[in-house]
Amino acid sequence: MHTYVVVRGIIHEQERFIKELSSQYIPAWKKNSKGEFIPMKTIDPETGEGDQSLMQVSVRPIQLYEIVHHEPELNRVLAMIRPAKKYREKYKWMAWIVEKLGKIMGLEKVPEVEEFKGIPQCYKNKHVVCEVVGIKRDEYNDEGMEQL
Predict the structure, then answer these.
(1) Which of 135, 130, 133 minimizes the C-alpha distance to 87?
(2) Of 86, 87, 128, 142, which is least surrounded by CB within 10 A?
(3) 142 shares a domain with 96
(4) What pLDDT score does 50 carry?
(5) Residue 30 pairs with which residues in a beta bridge?
(6) Looking at residue 125, what is its pLDDT?
(7) Could you tell me if residue 120 is inside a domain?
């Protein structure tokens, strides 16, 4: 089961809360052939006896980041983060949220980009999914300087 929460507070207190929550161990369960929940047990191979198995609480943040770069570097930045297009089918709810969030924020959809040849991915991990919400183009003054 997955429980979604919104957390607000002083950052170091949030971090402490998440650390404490993710350090908790709770009983592990599985379903039997009748669909009933039964305790998972760790069985001692010598005695055949078992104790209730435990699982560590997993806390997985869903976070929004703004990555700041100059417009000509969009392809390079996308190459470094490798947007997770293949997950859109598996996690349809995430794709839906990303699309709605982009509209709410007034962002443009990310244009199709060139191949990512020769640009290394920053971090590759099957436990991290990065989905691009959209882009916001820079505004410039009369001298051609980017306005924040």
Answers:
(1) 130
(2) 142
(3) yes
(4) 87
(5) 38
(6) 61
(7) yes
Q: Are 83 and 75 in contact (CB under 8 A)?
A: no
Mean pLDDT value across residues 90-100 = 84
Q: What is the pTM of this model?
A: 0.66
Please check whether residues 41 and 96 belong to one and the same domain.
Answer: no
Distances (CA, A) of 66 to 35, 78, 106, 107, 134: 44, 13, 14, 12, 10
Contacts of 55 (CB under 8 A, 6+ apart): 25, 26, 27, 28
Domain count for the chain, please give it.
Answer: 2
Domain extent at residue 118: 71-147
Predicted local distance difference test score (pLDDT) of residue 58: 92
Say whether pLDDT at 126 is over 80.
no
3-state secondary structure (DSSP) of residue 111: coil
Mean pLDDT, the chain, whole residue set: 84
- Name the DSSP class of 71: G
Burial 9-44 (b: 16+ CB within 10 A, else e): eeeeeeeeeeeeeeeeeeeeeeeeeeeeeeeeeeee
Distance CA 122, CA 81 (A): 6
The reply to whether 3 falls in a domain is no
